[in-house]
Batch of 4 targets.
Target 1
Amino acid sequence: MSHDIILLKPASLDVEDLQNLDEVLDMGSEAFVAAALSDVFPGCLDGFFAHGEIFTLEASLAGDPVTSLHLALRFGQAWSDDAFDEIQARLARLCQALQASAFSVDDNSLIVSAHRS
C-alpha cells in the first residue's frame, strides 16, 4: 500500500485543502531543499529512505528554485499507528525547515503545516 504526499509553500497561510490553493511560493534552491530533505529522510532523493520493515519513502523535486516536493510513502509489513506518528513528526520537521505545508494527494487535505502547532 502507498500514499502520495506533496509539499508546497502556500502564499496564504490558511489553506487547508489543495483545491483552495491559489498561489505557491518557492521553497528555496534545489540544494537547500535537498539538504533539508536529507536531514529528515536520508537517501530518499538517491533511491529511497527505508525504515526497516515499517515504511520506505521516495522523493522528487520540481523546479529550481523548488516549487513542489513529491513524496511516495510505501507501507511495510510492520506498519502501525506508531509509524504514522513518526511520519507526522518527520513531516513536521521538514515542513518547519522549508516553511511549507504537506498535503495528501489522495484527498487534497492538509497533513502538516509549518504554520500550525
Note: The CA atoms of residues 39 and 94 lie 8 Å apart.
Target 2
Amino acid sequence: MVACLLVPLWFCVVSVPIEAQEVEIETPTRLAFFLDCNFCDETFIRQEMPYLDHVRDREVADIHVLVTREDTGSGGEAWTIDVFGLGAFEGQDLSGVYNIPADVTEAEERNGFLRTLEVSLVPYLMQTPIRDRLSVDIAPSELDAVEQTQITEDPWNHWTFEIYADGSADFESQQQSFDTRYGVYASHVTEKWKLQLRPFFNYNYDQFERDQGTITSTAQRNGFTSYAIRSISPHWSVGAYGDILTSTFSNVDLRYRFMGAVEWSHYPYREANRRQLTVAYRLGASQITYRDTTIYNEIEQRLPQHLLNAGYEVVQPWGAIEIGINASQYLHDLSRHSLLFDAEFDIRITKGLSVGIGGFFELIHDQINLPKGSADLEDVLLRRRQLETNFEAGIGFGFRYRFGSVLNNVVNPRFGGIGNRDRF
C-alpha cells in the first residue's frame, strides 16, 4: 500500500509500501522512539509527543528516525526524514522531506517539523492501541487550483540574496579588540544550474598596552568569489570558478583566479543527503601581486594550477563517516604542491556507547606567498602573518556512554542555565 498525505504547503511526506513481516513479533502497546538528529529541538519534541516513549538508544527503540539536511536554492533547507522500523516493525521503513523556506521563524520551523514527524509515524501508530485516538485534520487552503498554478511563476527567476554582517568588541584596561565581517550572497539554483556571486569583507583590530608602549595590530581579508555549475547527468557536472582576494595574513595585495572544473559522483546526486562519493578536478591560473617580496624574490606572478578533490560521506543509523582528500599543484614548478587528508568517524558501538574520532594531515610544499625576512614577535603571537611549515596535523577523539533509564520523556526546564556564568 502506498499512502500520500497532504500537510502544510511548505512540506510533504511520501511513504513507501510496508511489507508484511515473515516472523510474528508482538507489536508494542506504546512506541519506543529514538530521534537521531543533532540539530533538532529535542526538548520541544518530547513535550509535544508525550504518547511516545522517547529513548536514548536505538537498541531499545521500536522506531529510529534519522534526520539529515541540505541547503535549497531559495536559501532555505530540506530536511530528509528517514524512519526505520525495528523489532516488530522490522522492514517497515519510509522516507519524507520537510522543506523550510528561508523566511520562516524558528517557531514555524519546529512546528512544521513536528507535524511532518507526526505524519511519518502514522503507519506505525496504526498498529498500536493509539490508532483509536488518531484523527485526520487537513488545514483548508485559501488558494484554488488556478491560483496555485500562478504562484509557481517565480518573479525572481530562482535568484535569492542574503546580506550578512556581524562583529564583536572587547574592552579591558590593558587591551581592546574589534572584529567585523560582512558581505552578500547572490545565488541562483535550479535542477540544471547552480550559480553564486559573493563579495566579502573581514577586518580585525587589536591593541595592547605594555610598559614598552602600545602594540597595535590590524588584519584584513577581502574578496569576491563566484562559480557557475551545470548539471549534465545524474552523475556528472561541469563548471567554472572565479575569485578575487586581498589578504594581509597571506601577503596577497591582489589575486585574480579563474578555473574550469568537472565533477563525477558515483551515486546519483539525489542521494547526496545520505551518501556521497565524488571526485572533482579544477584547472586554471592565478595572477598575484604580493604586498611584500616573497622568499622566492617575487613581487608579482602568474601561476597555472590544478586541484583534485575526492570525498566520501555516509550517514546511516549506525553513525556517520566523512573522508576527504584534497591535492593542489602549481604547474610552473611541480615541486610546489600540497596534499590534505582528513577524516571523521562517529560510530555507535553497542547499546549506549558511541565513539568519535577525527583528524587531518597536510603536506605543505606550496607556500610561495611567504614574505622575506623574519616575522615580528607580535605578528606571531597574534597570528597576523603566515609562518613557514612543511606539514600541519591535528586529531580529536572522544566517546559517549549512557546507562541507566532508557526513557527520556520528562522535561524539567527549571533553572535552565540561569546564573551559571563563572569567571574561572
Note: The CA atoms of residues 200 and 395 lie 30 Å apart.
Target 3
Amino acid sequence: MIILGIDPGSRFCGYGIIQTEKNQIVAAGCGTIVIKPKLSFPEKLELVFGRISELIKEYQPNVLAIETVFLGKNLKSVLVLSQVRGVIILAAQLNKMQVYEYSPREIKKSVVGNGNASKQQVQYMIQKLIPLNKQPATNDASDGLAIAYCHFNKLRFL
C-alpha cells in the first residue's frame, strides 16, 4: 500500500509518501510544495491542485491522509486553509482515492506517544521511525510524513 500524507498550508504544503508491505515500511520520501506569495489566491489553489495531482499520478498512492483544520485565533487563516484542503481532497477524489483525516493531536500521539508533542519531537521521531536516505528538508515535509505514518499506524492496529 502507498500512503500520501499531506500537511496543508497556504504558503507551504508538506507531503510524505510511504510504501508498506506486510505491516513494514519499505520506502518513504517527502517534500514541500512552495506556494509563491505573489500569486493570486485562485492561482495558489490551482498550483496546489496541480502539484497534488502530479504526485498522485507519479506515485499512485492508494489513500490520502490529511491533517484537519486547527481552529486557531485567526478565522481568515482557517478559511484559507479550508479551501486549500478542499482542492487537495478534490484531487484525491478525482483519482478515486480514499481520504482519511487526522487532527494534529492525533498525529502527534501516533508518532510521539503524546498529543502535546512539539514539532521538534515529531521531526525527531519521524527520523527514527521511517527509513529515509535523506532527512526531511522542512518541518512541513516532516509533518507530511508524520500524517502518512499516523495512517499507517491506524491500519496496523485495526
Note: The chain has five helices and five strands.
Target 4
Amino acid sequence: MNEANEKGPILIMIDADACPVKNEAYKVAERHDVKTFVVANSWINTPRDPMIERVVVPAGPDVADDWIAERARPGVVVVTADVPLAARCQKAGAHVIAPSGRAFTEQSMGMALAVRNLMDDLRSQGETTRGPPPFSPKQRSEFLSALDLALVRLVRAGFPKR
C-alpha cells in the first residue's frame, strides 16, 4: 500500500459550543465536498446534510475536546478557539484554525499556550480580564480564506475527500 492510499479522508471537526463561524465552515465544506463533524456537549442545530454530522457528547469538562483530539490526525482540519485543544490536535498532525482565521502552528503554539496560561493565572488570582473583542466581518472573511486554503492544501497533498 502506498502513502496516498494510507491517508484518511479530509475531515473538518468543529469545537462547536462557542464557535461563531459554524455557518461559514458549512459553506466551505459543502464547496469542497468534505465531511464535517460538529461536536458539542449539548444539542446544536445543524443543516440537514449527510455531510454534516452533529456529535453530542456527555456533559463534563473537556469531553468534547477529548472526542476531537482522539480523532485528530493529518488530513483533519480542527476549528477551535481552545488553545489546549489546538495544541493537542496540532501535535497529532491536524491543521488547526481559530475562528478568527489564525492558524495554530508548531511555531505559534508555545506563545499561544503561554498567553492562555498567563490569563488563566491572572483570573485565578482575582484579576478582571477582558474577553475577546466582538467578532468582526473581517475575521469571518479571514476564517473563510484560511479554511479554504487548508482544504486546498490537503487535496494537493493527496488526501482524499471521501
Note: The longest strand covers residues 35-40.
